[in-house]
Amino acid sequence: MSARETILRRIRAAVADAPEVAVPRDYRTASGAGGLGGSAVQDLPGLFAERVDDYRATVLRAGPGEVAGVVAERAAARGVERLAVPPGLPEEWLAGLCDVRLLRDDPPLANDELDRAHGVITGCAVAVAETGTIVLDGGPGQGRRALTLLPDYHLCVVPAGHIVRGVPEAVALLDPRRPLTWISGPSATSDIELDRVEGVHGPRVLDVVIVGN
Amino acid sequence: MSGTFLGMPAFPANAARAVQDSQLRHNLRKATHTIRAKRLSTIAEVPDWRELREAAKAVKDATLRDLDRHLLCLEEQVTATGGHVHWARDAAEACRIVAGLVRATGETEVVKVKSMATQEIGLNEALAEHGIEAYETDLAELIVQLGDDRPSHILVPAIHRNRAEIREIFLRSMPDAPPGLTDEPAALAEAARLHLRQRFLASKVAISGANFAVAETGTLVVLESEGNGRMCLTLPETLISVVGIEKIVPTWRDLEIFLQVLPRSSTGERMNPYTSTWTGATEGQTFHLVLLDNGRTDVLADEIGRQALRCIRCSACLNVCPVYERAGGHAYGSVYPGPIGAILTPQMRGMGSPLDASLPYASTLCGACYDACPVAIDIPEVLVHLRARAPHPPAERAAMGAAAWTFSRAVRLTRAQRLASRLRRLLPRRLPGPLSAWTDTRDLPEVPAESFRDWWSRTQGGPR
Amino acid sequence: MRVALFITCVNDTLYPGTGRAVVSLLRRLGCEVDFPEAQTCCGQMHLNTGYQDEARRLARRFRAVFARHEIVVVPSGSCAATIREHYPRLGVETPRVVELTEFLVDVLGVTDVGAYFPHRVTYHPTCHSLRGLRLGDRPETLLRAVRGLELVPLPGAEECCGFGGTFAVKNPAVSAAMCADKCRAVLDTGAEVLCAADNSCLTHLGGALHRQRTGVRVVHIAEILASTEQDKPAGTPIASGRGR
Ligand code: SF4
Fold first, then answer.
1. Angle made by CA atoms A192, A193, A199, in degrees to the nearest 5
2. How far apart, in whole angstroms, are the C-alpha atoms of residue A132 and residue A47?
3. In degrees rounded to 5, what are phi and psi of residue C96?
4. CA–CA distance, B23 with C215 (Å, rounded to integer)
5. Ligand 1 pocket, B375 CB below 6 A?
6. B382 lines ligand 1 (CB under 6 A)
7. For residue C18, which of B317, B430, C12, C217 sits 20 to 30 Å off, Cα-Cα?
8. Taking the model in full, what pTM does it have?
9. Molecular function (GO) terms listed (chain C) (predicted)?
10. Average pLDDT of chain B?
């Protein structure tokens, strides 16, 4: 008998007596169902900003026409000279940059080229207010997964309309067929004395720009 | 499970040694108390924590109830999206499969992202036998590997080491450690970053586990902090994931529960820095999924014990356990230490060795683990259940039999009490045999001149 | 109200003073107390050590002894938890079993039992009372209402004391280490008296406190709640002979 058949047979024998299980979903769900619907948060961008800040990432707010200026200011503040750019990123976000070489990932950059980039700029698919999380799904303006991994600095532009309350709302919006990366603050570790320190293999610096309100 | 633990003495002896190690106790106390406070505060801000916990428990129970169906669905989805699925009955088979897959790539080095399943099957040692070197990339795993040590915690395998010891290990065993390395955690993390950078960029094969596998979509999920996981999952051309069959959740939507309960329970963060999900062969990668049984179906067959398979390896039960805090993880002689280890190891390995038979007793049944567990595994219930199946020493059996005999008739108890009362001045202050463990550190209570029942029958409860 | 008292084998044999206190307290509050003399032990030790058959026999025995009683009061958190939580798993149904402080607060609805105990007291919640029975702050509420009593909080109160029944003998090193930490926390409070709702844990902690000659006495909560001004001269807790 194959391993597959053996395992499946063992399972069937093991749970033959197990009762049916109903899953109660009484927690706060995306549709607002569940017993706790009354806790709707009004100011999602405000909550998101506060939670991102808790991870020691920097959060900035920008009006719709101010993104280019904030991006340019951030790039200068972080000393970025080579900035990786995913395909599909709105060109107007880059309009304020000067003295920055743009490394377009189209065709894809080699890993060592990417490794030498000082930073990367992306948008995001969705952002979660309660946990201060941004989610990238590889769509336009977000790029493949390595793009936001190898450069040491990540500048993420989050349109306020992409911010949802909690994890259930984000899961409902996301497409599981796409590779997803959920990012909550800069890379960090709790491996030394179970205390969080920022900055290991992923980007050590994360700036988040919230656009609009 | 890993052979490195074979032949270890029973838990009490290991724990007694650990208790003597004041540095170890200091490290464990500091780390577990840090995380306890954090966990409580991030959980307190979730208004529907109890409902999430109920749902998490139910989803896992429902998964186990129809595990065969969910596994077949997962296999179908992974295959349909370009991945390859392999089934392994036991550790040896899983190692054989992985070694074969690595060899087929022609590579002799692999990078690894921390995974309990691969530790459980002793994959690194098995690969070494095939001439394949496996490099751990998680900071704590790196500390363990460089220190030629064993993991002592599910989440933070080097929890028994403090920053000063980690610095020493790095200076001793990491060839490219910066000479002026301090014991600042940020500096230590930086050293690890530099040490592993080229390896990430050059590696062609990576091995991972997974926190969840979504049956409905074939999606795998890895939660991590450092970005080493992302490096391993993204950069190499071939990715091999070894996943226990109980890691399944039926639907994509179920992640909305687990992505909330797992980070808050494990590192006490609202969300871990990075969560990666992928489905099948992604961005041009070759993807292999190895589904691992290795004793899990035996656990599944035990009506009370099977709840252990709900475990999502958050390690909250370790962090709140007073016994773990003092005994340390090594005392449990398994890659699964602490309360979950005490119920999982004896079920997966059996209770044939003195160590494994002692594990169900490595608990005061205080219940802190059950309270903390995000999938509501009643660990004390399973411990008591396993104790009933454990081999009992003859002297203990005799004593328990005598006690049961005494308690089976009130008159016998009365006689025993009166005898004790009569001899109360003659009773020793130090108890003999195994009971001396009691009087080594504690005085005995004085036996009263009259038991309660004798007082009652004499006075009918005294004056009214 | 008429109640049956399950005194527990430990209290019966070693701490009759606790039993006498329970009787006098319940009577003071207007209860009629029955003591079915056929009672022995709930089987907790057997159950928790892995002797399920013996435990089941004792559980059935308990059921038979208390079958005709409506409510059974137990002055021990761990025994009450054993009966309430574990008996159903052994397939043994019992009449309503409540721990003493639950009985006072929930059934009788009293929080001030008219006690007088002029001492500095700290309370250890014990695991089965805290996480098993979920007694919550019932015991502290009762203690706070005791005249003359100064209740000082115990740091890390929710942590196990390391007794764990046969654990103390099977894993003596860890048990002693936990006990030492708990004793240190007790001493840090400056309390004269360590109180709990379970004499098993107090045997363990009291034995260590006595061995270390700390002067801290351990007293079951029933004995504090039973104390009144007419009782013994202030300063002499009822609990006597708790260590040799
Ligand atoms: S048993 Fe529960 S608390 Fe312990 S690691 Fe598993 S899920 Fe976490």
1. 35
2. 8
3. -65, 125
4. 31
5. yes
6. no
7. B430
8. 0.94
9. oxidoreductase activity
10. 94
User: Do the chains A and C touch each other, judged by at least 3 C-beta pairs below 8 angstroms?
Assistant: no
Residue C33: closest CA among chain B residues belongs to which residue?
A: B461
Burial (CB count within 10 angstroms: exposed 0-12, middle 13-18, buried 19+), residue B395: exposed
CATH: 3.30.10.20, 3.20.20.370, 3.50.50.60, 3.40.50.10420. Which one for A43-211? 3.40.50.10420
Whether the per-residue pLDDT at C244 is higher than 80: the answer is no
Q: Is residue B320 part of a domain?
A: no
Structural tokens at position A35? 């017993």
* Residues on chain B touching C14 (C-beta within 8 angstroms): 445, 447-448
Q: Are residues C175 and C139 in the same domain?
A: yes
Q: Of the candidates A161, A91, A100, which has an alpha carbon nearest to the alpha carbon of residue A125?
A: A161
Distance from CA of A91 to the nearest CA of B (A): 25
Read off the pLDDT of residues B14-68 as tens digits, 9 standing for 90 and up: 999 999 999 899 989 999 999 999 999 999 999 999 999 999 999 999 999 999 9
Instruction: Give the number of C-alpha atoms closer than 13 A to the C-alpha of residue B192, restricted to the C-beta side.
Output: 34
Considering the domain architecture, whether residues C222 and C124 belong to the same structural domain is answered as: yes
Domain end among C107, C139, C169: C107
Provide φ and ψ at A154, rounded to 5°.
-125, 120
Using a CB–CB cutoff of 8 Å, tell me whether A16 touches chain B.
no
User: What six digits make up the tokens of B424?
Assistant: 């109360």
DSSP structure string for B131-142: T-EEEE-SHHHH
**Interface contact flag, B438 C169, Cβ < 8 Å:** yes
Q: Are residues B130 and B260 in the same domain?
A: yes
* pLDDT score of C232: 59
Nearest by CB to B438, from C49, C168, C244: name it.
C168
Tens digits of residue pLDDT in C99-143: 999 999 999 999 999 999 999 999 999 999 999 999 999 999 999
Q: Strand C96-99 vs strand C71-74: parallel, antiparallel, or unpaired?
A: parallel
Q: What pLDDT sits at residue A83?
A: 97
Q: Could you identify the residue written with the tokens 């950059």?
A: A109
Instruction: Point out the residue among A13, A29, A195 whose CB comes nearest to the CB of B185.
Output: A195
Cβ contacts of B384 within 8 Å, gap of 6 or more: B365, C47, C48, C50, C86
Ligand 1 centroid – CA B321 distance (Å): 11
Amino acid at B282: T
The pLDDT-based confidence of B2 (bands split at 50, 70, 90) is very low
Does residue C238 sit within a domain? no
Q: Is residue B336 predicted with pLDDT exceeding 90?
A: yes
pLDDT in tens, A74-90: 999 999 999 999 999 99
> Does C243 score more than 60 pLDDT?
no
Domain with C124, as residue range(s), is 120-231
Q: What Rg value do the Cα atoms of chain A yield, rounded?
A: 21
Verify whether the Cβ–Cβ distance B267 to A194 is below 8 Å: yes
